[in-house]
Amino acid sequence: MHQHSGSYRCVCDRGYTMGRRECVDVNECRRNPCGKYGKCHNTIGSYKCYCRRGFKWNGRTCIDINECRRRGVCGRYARCYNTPGSYYCKCYSSGYKMIGLTCVDINECLRNPCPSGVTCHNFPGSYRCACKPGYYFANNTCVDHNECKYKGRCDHICVNTPGSFYCLCRKGFELFKKRYCVDINECRCNNGGCPFPYRCVNKPGHHYCDCPFGFGVRGNMCHLLIPQKKLNFTLPNNPTALPRMKPQLQTTTVIPPKK
C-alpha cells in the first residue's frame, strides 16, 4: 500500500492484479508464455513451463534441441537430419541398412553377387569381386592380366601366359632368379670349344677364339711376340706364326625349364 496526502493506493505483488478490493492471481498461461512447443501450468503468483520432448527451456520459451550436435548420434555410416523436436538418420549409401537409429553394413556377399569361381570380398558399404592372382575382374568375368605390358618385368623377353608370365633370355645369356639375364661364360667349359692353343674370349652374349697367349694378330696370322721360353705351352717345331682362326660369333642358347 502506498500512502499519499489525504489518500492511499494499493499495489499488488508481481503475479497478481488488483481486483475489486484485493489482489488476485494473474493467469499468465493465457498469453501463452511457453510458446508452441511448451505446456504452461499456472501457479499462485507465477507459472511454470513444461517443454515437449525434444525441446528445452532457454529462460523465455521452449526451443528445439538439435540432437545432431551430439557426436555419433547416427553412427559412422549415416547422416543426421534435425527436425523440430526430433531428428532422423539417413545412411550414406545403399550398401547400408537402418537398424533402429544406426546404419549397419549390408554383407552383399551373402547373396553371391560374383560369378562362379570368383571370390567375393565385403567392404563397408560395398563389395568387390576378386579373381585369382594374374587376373582382374571386368565385365562380370575374370580377364587375364598381361604382366608383360609393364617395362622392366624381365631383363630381355617377357612371355605372358594365362594368369602368369615367364622370362626368357637372348642367346648367350641364362636366367637368374626368374627375371634377370646374366652372360654365359662359355670359356669356362672346355675352353669354349677353341682348339689348343688358341684362347677363348668371352663377350656379353657370345664368345670367339683368338690368338694364343704370347701371339699377336697381323693380317690373317698370329705372330709370336715373346721369346719361346716365356710361353706357357709348347708346340711341335716351335712355330713363330700360326694361322689365325676366322672370328665367328658363337652363342649358347638356354631353354627355360618346363613348369
TrEMBL record:
Keyword Nuclease among record annotations: no
A GO MF term: calcium ion binding
Pfam family, one: EGF_CA
Subcellular localization: Secreted, Extracellular space, Extracellular matrix
Keywords: Disulfide bond, EGF-like domain, Extracellular matrix, Repeat, Secreted, Signal
Residues annotated as domain EGF-like: 25-63, 64-104, 105-143, 144-182
Gene3D superfamilies assigned to the protein according to its UniProt record, in alphabetical order: Laminin
Name assigned to this protein: Fibulin-2-like isoform X2
Organism: Octopus sinensis (East Asian common octopus)
Record lineage: Eukaryota, Metazoa, Spiralia, Lophotrochozoa, Mollusca
Gene from which the chain derives: LOC115224655
